Amino acid sequence: MGTGASKNPDSSHGGDRDDCLDHDGGQLYISLKMENFKLKGELIPHIYGSVPLVGSWDCSKALSMERESKSMWELSFVVPPNHETLDFKFLLKPKHSNVPCIVEEGPNRLLTRGTLQGDARLALFRLNGDEVLEYRVFIKADRVSPFDLAASWRAYKENLQPSTVRGIPDVSINAAPDTGVENGSPVTLELDLEHYVIPAPVTSANSALVYAANMTENPRSLTCGGTWSNSYGSSSASYSNKAGSALVDQSQSKKETEVMVTDSSKIYSTSGMVESKSVGTFSPLQKQDGQRGLFVDRGVGSPRLVKSTSATTFATELKLDTESKNAMPAAAGAVAAAAVADQMLGPKEDRHLAIVLVGLPARGKTFTSAKLTRYLRWLGHDTKHFNVGKYRRLKHGTNQSADFFRADNPEGMEARNEVAALAMDDMISWMQEGGQVGIFDATNSSRARRNMLMKMAEGKCKIIFLETICNDERIIERNIRLKVQQSPDYAEEPDFEAGMRDFKTRLANYEKVYEPVEEGSYIKMIDMASGHGGQLQVNNISGYLPGRIVFFLVNTHLTPRPILLTRHGESRDNVRGRIGGDTVLSSEAGQLYSKKLANFVEKRLKSERAASIWTSTLQRTILTARPIVGFPKIQWRALDEINAGVCDGMTYEEIKKNMPEEYESRKKDKLRYRYPRGESYLDVIQRLEPVIIELERQRAPVVVISHQAVLRALYAYFADRPLKEIPHIEVPLHTIIEIQMGVSGVQEKRYKLMD
């Protein structure tokens, strides 16, 4: 008679594996196989059942199994690890007809989290009379990282044959495109995508239009009269204060230098904490097999909360925020707990962190500083960026020649050390008022300068040096040209070539006396600008926050690519005004938008073979993405809408009527308000951090189809919006927000496909 269902011992079977399925992330790759050495005629094995496997017990819609060998038939599919039970059966159908169908004997088969419920059994089919056809059934469930799955799909598309990428079989991810007429007219999108462009908000992500150093912290030491309060000595009279003319500092100038970052697809960090008492080097060869799927989201789940924050608690939090500024970071959950532990343990100076940049000019220090500042602010850490070049221009003007930067020019050296000391003094003063992380942006290329900074910081803050090193002449030349084109230092130089010669002379002056960092705690980014290799070295780095900084730097690069953010098409709950839920798209507007979006993506990304589509696990985003073909689709539980807890499915009017205290608490502080047994915006930010890291790692375009609260948080990261603004950011339906990331910074464009 043969054996029954064979289970893979390495797959996720068994009761004690179920819980870790929810926490380890990834998806389940399910393989169903049927074997019979005595095939009967032209009967083809099929599978039919309920949602989400097939969606109908209609035999005509059954899924055909594919022949794997002469005697074996197979069908594979992917489901989330926490999927609802798959209820299905096998049937046999003639090759060229839908009838007659022969359904297997016995009860339905139930598959929960990759585990077959009940006893394993053969698939028995009763033919004419008493003849019974037997099939052996094999069921296998393997955990698959979404990114391994995407890599396998791309390999399949390129090779047009089953790939063996990391040993994972290929899966047909995309459904066939829907064609036809919607509401009596063809669903089309004009070839001119610009037709759909709408103005972006004034406070948008267009930071690339502004010189990065101009966006840094304004010097406190400058009074209206142009007098500097300074206890470290004054500069020579030959360098007069030109702050009156330099205060505007060429706001129309453009500048972003190339940042030295790594090929993060080859370099991994296994945790948020790095503990290294000697020099350690991250290199592409150190990635271990066990680290695959590192960035798969674990989700947050419902916090253990029986009732929401009361108005009294909100008043307390607001009081802490104003009277004891940043005694606790605004970030929630594990992020805040680890950061607070860092602040409470150890010497007083460890409660404040100074990231001091080191490197020759045109190595991307300012851009690295700006990007790191944006990331830490988004996580809820009070962070400011202090640029010494801005101090220098405000005090000594913008027209200093290369001679000003010579090491054998005592007046120039004194002036530059003076403004460095002023900037450091401002940063320390800000920290003593409650600031947490200061980014100190300057060349700091000599040991003497760094010793001066460490002496000033002693007992007040912990210093970590961040050194950027680049030996690629092509990248250096490109950065020099950007510097001369966009820096206020050369705004008054009409001759571009003369500016190039002056800057190269300035660079040569720095190179003569440059001393690499070998002291204290440091991070070195070596030849990582190209994104194709390089190293990241760490020395004497420990603690949660320094670990997160290392983790972020390892996983960022500057390959230009767009990221498209959009909400799902209008759902039935959108029409009803209900929050949360997991409804399908509305019959008209929602379904029409899904087709328009597919058309848009096809035209916008037609040359981007490696692009991918990311959705939440809720069906309204999955259905919105369904008409998009030709790209792998990845479901993230971290992209699910904010958990409304007991308020899920209610309208705001119902909440106001039945839960007036909750309604008022949310109204007072939408950022920190947590729905009873649900989430707050800060919780959403916490669970979105793996998504941000993966978006930074991606080198190809990504289309993110998600929900309003989630997209508000993602957009705030790219646009560098304050945390308090996140719950109020406008993310309208049926609109695409395109974030363009590249060497010139971040720019934004919006497309409105429907009213």
Automatic annotation (TrEMBL):
Region (Disordered) location: 1-20
Molecular function GO labels: 6-phosphofructo-2-kinase activity; ATP binding; starch binding
Domain named CBM20: residues: 22-127
Keyword Plastid applies: no
Protein known as: CBM20 domain-containing protein
Organism: Nelumbo nucifera (Sacred lotus)
InterPro entries: 6Pfruct_kin (IPR003094), 6Phosfructo_kin (IPR013079), Carb-bd-like_fold (IPR013784), CBM20 (IPR002044), His_Pase_superF_clade-1 (IPR013078), His_PPase_superfam (IPR029033), Ig-like_fold (IPR013783), P-loop_NTPase (IPR027417)
Keyword list, A-Z: ATP-binding, Nucleotide-binding
BP GO terms, sorted: fructose 2,6-bisphosphate metabolic process; fructose metabolic process
Gene3D superfamilies from the UniProt entry: Immunoglobulins, P-loop containing nucleotide triphosphate hydrolases, Phosphoglycerate mutase-like
Polar residues composition bias: residue spans: 1-11
